[in-house]
Design brief:
alpha+beta; globular; about 80 residues
Length: about 80
């Protein structure tokens, strides 16, 4: 799953914050990048996480609507564990 993360901030930070994107923009969107940079700038390590459906949008033609939250919860819990 490590391909689904972008890391910012110090690797030895005492706290890592996991950020997941919303339904309309990926983990490297302008707003997610700005939030991650702001948090990293004050010493947090930030892991930006991308759900599989959003990663698929990078390579597939067209845009499907995002799955329901209940469907995404196991993927998010796996990201937390990782």
């Amino acid at each position: 799953m490590s391909g689904k993360f972008l890391f910012d901030g110090p690797g030895d930070a005492p706290v890592t914050i996991l950020l997941a994107h919303g339904a309309g923009a990926p983990m490297d969107s302008t707003s997610m990048t700005a939030a991650a940079m702001a948090l990293a700038g004050v010493g947090f390590r930030v892991a930006r996480f991308e759900f599989g459906y959003m990663a698929a949008r990078r390579t597939a033609d067209g845009r499907k609507p995002p799955p329901r939250a209940e469907t995404l919860n196991p993927e998010y819990r796996a990201a937390i564990a990782e």
